[in-house]
Design brief:
- The protein has 259 residues and is of the alpha/beta class.
- The protein has 9 helices and 9 strands.
- A 6-stranded mixed sheet has the order 1-6-5-2-4-3. Strands 7-8-9 form a 3-stranded antiparallel sheet.
- α4 (87-103) packs across α5 (118-131).
- The chain is elongated, with a radius of gyration of 23 Å.
- The mean pLDDT is 84.
Length: 259
């Protein structure tokens, strides 16, 4: 699982990680251009070159820069027109960027947020964490290099940024957990196994209540549809109910699943 953290731009010169930044096609209007140039002066000249200003949306170019007698890689990714840039495009580009880093066996990277706002940072984290998911239960290639850390470089560290990152990671980790389950073959994801997954959630979170209804209870309740579907399987059918009780009544929800 990738680790995503906030760092200040004035810390970048003391680090050796690969740099990554987005370039709008109308780069003269790029709000982050001066911020980036101030953090890494050697990038100022590069940012003014047309080959980086004219990158198509999602396309990537690399170069080598020197900073404080250090040689490091810099990755540029096209963001399209700034007037058309939105949260969805931020998710897409962030995902493309980290997949490229994975292909290039890059373990740590410093990324300048495409725009230094809470919403853009949240969208980038979402794109990064979802894009890096892969089903690896049956893979045994231990030599594969994974992207381990992503540092988002900002001018000032706000608590809201950190809170947003944690919130988005919680949601996307849950999405990836669901993707992991859905990718399992039927023989490894039978009703009994699904009940175990549900029980693991119940144990970790006291505000979740779990109810598992087995065959006898299903019969007494007259839930014949579930029983009919499960009759063709060697595994006993189950109705799994997860109730989430939030702090407010509006936060509460119920999830029901039949197997």
């Amino acid at each position: 699982m990738v680790k995503i953290e906030i760092i200040k731009t004035d810390e970048i010169s003391n680090r050796n990680q690969v740099l990554a930044l987005g370039c709008f096609s109308d780069n003269n209007k790029n709000k982050n251009k001066d911020l980036i140039a101030n953090a890494i002066p050697d990038l100022k000249f590069i940012l003014e070159q047309n080959e980086y200003n004219n990158l198509k949306f999602g396309s990537i170019k690399e170069t080598i820069i020197t900073s404080n007698n250090k040689v490091r890689r810099a990755i540029f990714i096209g963001l399209g027109d700034q007037k058309d840039f939105d949260l969805e495009k931020s998710r897409i580009v962030a995902g493309k960027l980290v997949l490229y880093c994975k292909e290039q066996s890059i373990e740590d990277i410093i990324v300048f947020p495409f725009e230094e706002t809470e919403d853009i940072i949240g969208a980038m984290v979402e794109g990064i964490n979802l894009a890096l998911y892969s089903f690896e239960k049956y893979k045994n290639d231990e030599k594969e290099t994974k992207l381990k850390k992503v540092f988002l470089a900002v001018t000032r560290i706000y608590k809201n940024y950190t809170n947003k990152i944690n919130e988005v990671l919680t949601i996307t980790n849950a999405v990836n957990f669901a993707r992991e389950i859905s990718n399992l073959p039927p023989n490894e994801c039978n009703p009994e196994k699904m009940a175990q997954f549900a029980a693991s959630l119940d144990k970790k979170r006291p505000n979740i209540k779990l109810t598992i209804i087995g065959r006898k209870k299903l019969e007494s309740l007259g839930l014949n549809g579930i029983l009919a579907v499960g009759s063709g399987s060697s595994s006993e059918p189950k109705l799994i109910i997860l109730e989430y009780n939030g702090k407010r009544a509006s936060d509460s929800s119920i999830v029901m699943s039949q197997y």
